[in-house]
Amino acid sequence: MIIVRYGEIGIKGGKRREFERKLAENIGKALRRKGIEGKTKIIRGRILVDVPDEAAEIIAKVPGVVSVSPARVMEYEEIPAYLKEALKDYNPRSFRVDTRRLDKTFLKTSMEVNREIGAFVVENFGWKVDLENPELTIGIEIIGGKAYVFFEKIPGVGGLPVGTQGKVVVLLSGGIDSPVAAFLMLKRGAEVIALHFDQGLNARNVVERVVDILEDYSPEPIELIVENHFEVLKPYVSALARAKLREWTCVVCKVAMLRRAAEIAREKGALGIVTGDSLGQVASQTLANLYFETMSVRFPVHRPLLGMDKEEIVAIARRIGTYEAFLEYPYCDCPFRPERVVTSGKLEQFQRVLEALDREGVV
Ligand code: ATP
Ligand code: MG
């Protein structure tokens, strides 16, 4: 049996039931995708999943899950006999008992259970009690009159169940940043469609691998749309060359991507575009350039990494597993990149860029 904990703060009434139902459903789907069948049951602020302990790692990756514990269910009176057996393989320097009584009709208080079971452990194993920083925590949760006993609390990703927030189109490269942006959107409950612009470098394998890894955090398979980057970009680049505005290529490259993304988003009923931009990271990500890029597309563009440093982004990428895929990503020396690129252009200049694009019929 696995106990699943989820955040409750700020979720009330009907919304809360919707949250719980969706989360239980998503956990079921995540398990089924890995070939594990098991019943989920919602009781009193917990979701109980009747599956083998190994499934805990899968459940921990489902957005909305705060933590999971593989547990044994028993009557309260059976706890001592169970612990006598189960604790044989442990030899901690210190321990404590941590009881949560989710079922307030249970006759003993949490403190009483802590003391009673703690005394039993001291008597039988002679371990030292440490309430502040114990090596082993014996967890007990009283749910629906039964005791759930566990020794492990695996942190989940937190956030909200996917499917509670609508859909977004994520511009996904095989780099470090955009996979993290996609993950953060999944984490906050949005469904993700991945859009990749193929630059003909076998990056496609890497991007497919990234999508594979991201799918661990998504109840449904993630749709990956691959476009030929050069075909999308070509009319823009020619228009810029003719207008002698080549230094705007990198900005316009992003404009091309965003406009295509907006088209796809409208088709798919998505409500936003998401990128992995982080303020000032590279030439196309100055505030001025982000301004031009965003102004050129009549669709909301979200940048969940905008305020993050590279180290913070890398730390998340490592944690979620997409960093390893990035290491396989081929370095692209973009053939369209001019010697000089604009980093703090003026709006009047950019108007000329847009006019040039208009004149050439590039939309
Ligand atoms: P990343 O690590 O995500 O590739 P980056 O640091 O390389 O980002 P840029 O190349 O400037 O930064 O790209 C900024 C954003 O534009 C990316 O985070 C991504 O959302 C999008 N993007 C860039 N290249 C592509 C591509 N080939 N296909 C789809 N989206 C892309
Ligand atoms: Mg990149």
Description:
40% of the residues lie in helices and 19% in strands. With 363 residues, it is of the alpha/beta class. The chain folds into two domains: 2-155, VC0802-like; 167-359, Rossmann fold (3-Layer(aba) Sandwich). The protein has a five-stranded antiparallel β-sheet. It has a five-stranded mixed β-sheet with strand order 5-9-8-6-7. The N and C termini lie far apart (56 Å). Bound molecules: adenosine-5'-triphosphate and magnesium ion.
Radius of gyration, in angstroms, nearest whole number: 26 Å
* Helix percent band: 25-40%
User: What is the rounded distance between the termini?
Assistant: 56 Å
Question: What does the overall shape look like?
Answer: elongated
Specify the structural class. Answer: alpha/beta
Return residue spans where pLDDT drops below 50 for at least 5 consecutive residues.
none
| Ligand species | adenosine-5'-triphosphate, magnesium ion
CATH homologous superfamily grouping of the largest domain? HUPs
Annotation, overall tally of beta strands: 15
**Beta fraction:** 15-25%
Total helices: the number is: 12
Q: What is the CATH class designation of the largest domain? A: Alpha Beta
Query: Any idea of the CATH topology of the largest domain?
Result: Rossmann fold
Major beta sheet summary: 5 strands, antiparallel
Order of helices and strands: EHEEHEEHEHEEEEEHEHEHHEHEHHH
Spatial sequence of strands, sheet with the most strands: 2-3-1-4-10
Number of separate domains:
2
Average residue-wise pLDDT: 93
CATH architecture call of the largest domain: 3-Layer(aba) Sandwich
